[in-house]
From TrEMBL:
Species: Nesterenkonia flava
Pathway(s): Carbohydrate degradation; pentose phosphate pathway; D-ribulose 5-phosphate from D-glucose 6-phosphate (oxidative stage): step 3/3
EC number(s) reported in the record: 1.1.1.44
Catalyzed reactions: 6-phospho-D-gluconate + NADP(+) = D-ribulose 5-phosphate + CO2 + NADPH
Residues annotated as domain 6-phosphogluconate dehydrogenase C-terminal: 178-478
UniProt name for this protein: 6-phosphogluconate dehydrogenase, decarboxylating
Length: 486
């Protein structure tokens, strides 16, 4: 009997996925460009299951059962192409190459097409959950052909995270769909973290709540409809004391957020497919501004009248229990903004599905994110239920699902108060504010885009349509200003 699957690329992610597969009873053939990594894995964890040691890709391929399944977990970009080029001549029709790294979906589409012409299946798989997820059960978003999922799917489902016994793994769509869904997951993750940051900043700047006290607030919030992994770990980070100085750790960490690019890809793709993912884009921009530390230092001196340090919640709310009220308002603003981020991300999936020919099932996708991944949250179960209705009744936008229209109505006054306070006292809250603007734009029957169209027609004869009759029109602005049908 040959091995069930081969894994090439045994750095932290590949090694952990290989161990996860072996622990679940699969025989796993191992390969890494430098053999030392293979041996290190075998020395430390060889006892965990059935592994086959190989030194070359040819040996790896030879060791596999047909149809062969080779999972690539190398550095994204050129290395993936390099491995595919070496692997392809060694494989036969019907074999499956799996790329479970963080590849850009357009590259996955290109690779899938090229390999399909050679009779091979190429499956781009989105994997979320970091090192720990890879080892103990990640959220898995496979793309590629439906046919390849028939033989690969059961293995991936077995090693995936489980939400109340249900696998967080399902085929999402052809070619690059898996990597696309993972990318949008990461975009939502950016927004999720940004709104948490905004809530923290507002509570500290306007209500004077120190990090350790806020840890308790976030812990409390984790028992509400905000319950999620990110809220849970926010409490942990906020209560951490710096060993060196005794100050809150969050005060000694440089306030410049890093990024590996998936949030940026999501925002760019949102622009390309014409989907307004404002919460995600603002979150990416917020990280960019955070990185402009020298500029911020200089600007904070020039515009020193920034946050009024003397402002307290009682000045904002003018009541005895003002602080508590403000905290509750911030919680509601956070929830509403988070809902917008998810609504926009899911809308973007629909737009991308139309663009790339994927029939994406939002209910199934929400189900994949319920465990194993960074954005895992109780909210996803509710989102799933919102789409668990006959097609004709599915909400056009998540915010229109009954569960969420009610929640938004309940949060709205608080959301407006918080955004108003942020603007009045100069605390940046880009996602709280832009999400409210998105909500207000969506619920407006008429937008000033009519004026935009008028201006475009004026300077560029771009034409416009009328609300009262069909056709395309132009006003002769530089002549007698009469209207012509064009
Ligand atoms: N889903 C998640 O939560 C998550 C988290 C982290 C990373 N990732 C993604 O998972 C993938 C693997 O990440 P990682 O951190 O484990 O590893 P990595 O540092 O991205 O890559 C190191 C691995 O790539 C191999 N490699 C590099 N260039 C190669 C080439 N030209 N030919 C063959 N092999 C090459 C290395 O082999 P040598 O040992 O010979 O150098 C090593 O096995 C990446 O796409 C990464 O973005 C995902």
């Amino acid at each position: 009997m040959g091995a069930d699957i081969g894994v090439t690329g045994l750095a932290v992610m590949g090694a952990n996925l290989a161990r996860n597969l072996a622990r679940n009873g699969f025989t796993v053939a191992l390969h890494n460009r430098s053999v030392a990594r293979t041996d290190s894995l075998l020395n430390s964890y060889g006892h965990e299951g059935n592994f086959v040691r190989t030194e070359t890709l040819a040996e790896l391929v030879e060791s596999l059962e047909r149809p062969r399944k080779v999972l690539i977990m190398v550095k994204a970009g050129g290395p993936v192409d390099a491995v595919i080029d070496e692997l392809t001549p060694l494989l036969e029709e019907g074999d499956i190459i799996i790329d479970a790294g963080n590849s850009f979906y357009e590259e996955t589409r290109r690779r899938e097409e090229a390999l399909r012409e050679k009779g091979l299946h190429f499956v781009g798989v989105g994997v979320s959950g970091g090192e720990e997820g890879a080892l103990n059960g990640p959220s898995i978003m496979p793309g590629g052909s439906r046919e390849s999922y028939d033989s690969l799917g059961p293995m991936l489902e077995k090693i995936s995270a489980k939400y109340h016994g249900e696998a967080c793994c399902a085929w999402v769509g052809t070619d690059g769909a898996g990597h696309y869904v993972k990318m949008v997951h990461n975009g939502i993750e950016y927004a999720d973290m940004q709104v948490i940051g905004e809530a923290y900043d507002l509570m500290r700047s306007l209500a004077g709540l120190e990090p350790a006290t806020q840890a308790g607030v976030f812990r409390e919030w984790n028992t509400t409809d905000l319950a999620s992994y990110l809220i849970e770990i926010t409490a942990e980070v906020l209560e951490q004391e710096d060993e060196l100085t005794g100050r809150p750790l969050v005060d000694v960490i440089v306030d410049s957020a890093g990024q590996k690019g998936t949030g940026r890809w999501t925002a760019i793709s949102g622009l390309e497919v014409g989907s307004p993912v404002t919460a995600i884009a603002e979150s990416v921009f917020a990280r960019s501004i955070s990185s402009q530390r020298d500029l911020r230092a200089e600007t904070s001196r020039v515009f020193s009248a920034g946050i009024n340090e003397a402002i307290t919640a009682s000045e904002l709310y003018g009541e005895d229990d003002a602080q508590q009220d403000f905290v509750e308002d911030v919680r509601k603003a956070l929830y509403a903004s988070k809902l917008v981020a998810y609504a926009q991300g899911l809308d973007m999936l629909v737009a991308a599905g139309e663009e790339y020919g994927w029939d994406l099932d939002l209910k199934s996708i929400a189900s994949l994110w319920r465990a194993g991944c960074i954005i895992r949250a109780d909210l996803l179960d509710t989102i799933m239920k919102a789409y668990d209705v006959p097609a004709a009744q599915r909400p056009k936008n998540l915010l229109l699902a009954e569960e969420f229209t009610e929640a938004l109505n309940e949060c709205l006054p608080a959301w407006r108060r918080v955004v108003a306070a942020a603007a009045t006292y100069g605390v940046p809250a880009p996602v709280f504010s832009s999400s409210l603007a998105y909500y207000d734009s969506l619920r407006r029957d008429r937008l000033p885009a009519s004026l935009t169209q008028g201006l475009r027609d004026y300077f560029g004869a771009h034409t416009y349509q009328r609300v009262d009759k069909p056709g395309t029109f132009h006003t002769r602005w530089s002549q007698d200003r009469s209207e012509a049908e064009v």
